[in-house]
User: What shape does this take?
Amino acid sequence: MDDHIHPEPTSFISKYIFSHDHKVIAKQFIFLGLFGLLFGGVMAMIIRWTIAYPGEPFPVLGKLLFSDTNGLLSNDRYAMFFTMHGTIMIFFAITPILIGGFGNFTIPLMIGARDMAFPTLNMLSFWAYFVSVLFLAGSFFVPGGASAGGWVAYPPLASTQFQAGWGHTFWLFAIYFVGASSTMGAINYITTVIRLRAPGMGWFDMPLTIWGLWLTAVLNALFLPVLTGGAILMILDRVAGTHFYTAASLGQKGGDPILWQHLFWIFGHPEVYILILPAWGIVSDLLSFFSRKPAFGYRVTACAMIAITILSALVYGHHMFTTGMSPMLSESFQILTMIISIPAAIFFENWLHTIWHGQIRLATPMLFSLGLVFVFGLGGLSGLYLGSIATDLYLHDTYFVVGHFHLTMAAAVLFGSFAAIYFWFPKMFGRMMNDTLGKIHFWLSVVPLTAVFVGMLIVGYAGHHRRTPSLQAYEYLKPLQQMNVWITVAALSLGAAQVLFIINFFMSLFAGPKAPNNPWGVGTLEWMLPSPPKYYNFEKIPNIYYGPHEYGNPSVKDRDWVGQWEDPKNPGSGGPNAH
Amino acid sequence: MIAGTVDSKRVALAPRAIDARIGMMLFLASWGMVFLTLFFSYAVLRFQAPVWPPADVPPLPTNVKIFAWTNTILMIVSSVFLKNAFGRRLNSPRSIVFVGATMLCGLVFLFLQIETWLELWRPGMYMSDGTYQSLFYLLTGFHALHVAAGLLLFIWTLPGLRALAGIGPRPTADRAIHYEVRAYSVSMFWHFVDVAWLATFAVVYFT
Assistant: This one.
């Protein structure tokens, strides 16, 4: 292992802008991600408003943004908004916060490394990502506006015939750079975890957070390139007039629009696990930390996540049951999809067993972790109806799908992100967040959030098509208007509750009480360091003697946790590396 | 002696060199998925066609096939040269000669590839004519971009190889590892491009 410590950069630019330091890059990703979350969230509010209150302009913003249409969201812009809402939330909010942000922050700290294996690549990963943000932001300002082909960008809807402008091409460039950024990040994460674990830390001594992030990186490395390849074909179709996705039925020389669906979902199904695996890992750790109990079935949880990672690559066809694939294929995909519920149920059980009879401390990170368990449970159960062909054929493209995937990869991942932010904020910025405000934020979030997405399951079951801007256009949808008003009211209160988070975040950032080294009483490696850690993290790379969840060790008298770094002959004394 | 060289049989690798190998393998696995995606697309589109190549596409001219075969041989030979360049310690001018031979193969490959396209453009076969033509230009073009990238990367390694071979001032041990890691990573990329060509060749000309 290279044992030399690099000197700390001194100029502002090398320290905060083009930084090689994983902790700074993590913060860059998180700030961009939070900004994306705000942006995508406001779009969601406007979308919900349009459905619930047709003909009424969105308060304040409506008049500002859509002055040409009396403050109303026109149907074309409605399509643009749901497209960009999906794209921003997935690639520019969740991905940067959990993978770019917490992946960068936690991996070296939790495995006892001074930095990533390839710090320069890490920096490039962020700046490739930034280029992607520029493309996406720029796409709003090109003639014709941003892409309106749906975040899944199915041709022919995404072909030049229907997305004539540069908006969709910019969208594809943005996707291409996100792919480049994620690949760079993934290579870095995988190599770092393989090579730079502190001496004594075996694979099954890693925190589950690292397991989740590592498996995410594996999926990212292998499956984002599929989207990149698909995007190359689509760019050529749009720019060079090739015939990969052109539809013969529209009088074009025949490519195959379904090909894009194959490519998109070969990537897309692993992608949903890319998004949720870090959150699962973080929550698996947090449930143990705040129940003051070792994680139940740690190895089984890790293996279940591995199993899901492998299975996630084999089930993509369940997104395409309605494309007329052969029944033998679709039934195989159905069975494989159902098999995923076995490992998913296993670690869900492990979560429940972890908190069972624990000394639960309901601090804000724990509340959000429990919130994730709750909403992910709902989301997982609703997924069964979409995984089985008979019900999917009816539910396909309804709000049921929207409700389902928001519960799993939006609500659950959002709660995972909040849990992570509240948990690691003291280590990141050296200050504590306000716990009371955090708890209020949680309760004001979880109730409307459940209402919004469960409400979507209900209207979806009643037949509400996922992309219909106005229910008044269809006789059979009119009775759903009132239900949608309630969903919108819940959505707006959910949005309003996030103001509490923003206030808490910035107040704590500048005026929160100073954080001690280990405010939560946790034994993973980052908590042996000062808050925030020094530039090089570890002055001396610690030796690892314990697993990540060493709680209630009977040989320790005055506290219930033991650090992974502590001397087994004398645990509880702080160990040789205590600061 | 330099602590860590690309020849693992003789000297233990520096940790950074091992990191770089793992990272490079991951990158190639990842980037290989893009190639697999394109082949998969080819398969999906090709197996839907009743006749392949479609009836309205004239058969490929003979010299295009000759170019393709020549290119295949060039690619294999270039990989052998490259293996020779890095099969031993990088401390002799010999490795520069072999890298030069590899680059020459690559250059001729690119030249013949461009000739291939010109040969097809002349009778009027364009990318936008139909799915078959789109796929042909996509696969050959995508691969050719990698050959061009490989050539640029080789140029990037040359100053390091010169320094390692003792032409000019001797590099520090740290710098030497850096140069070797760079050269070895680029050579891994070139072998990858070679294998990618064999696959592209098989797919484009034989299925």
Observations:
- Chain A has a mean pLDDT of 92.
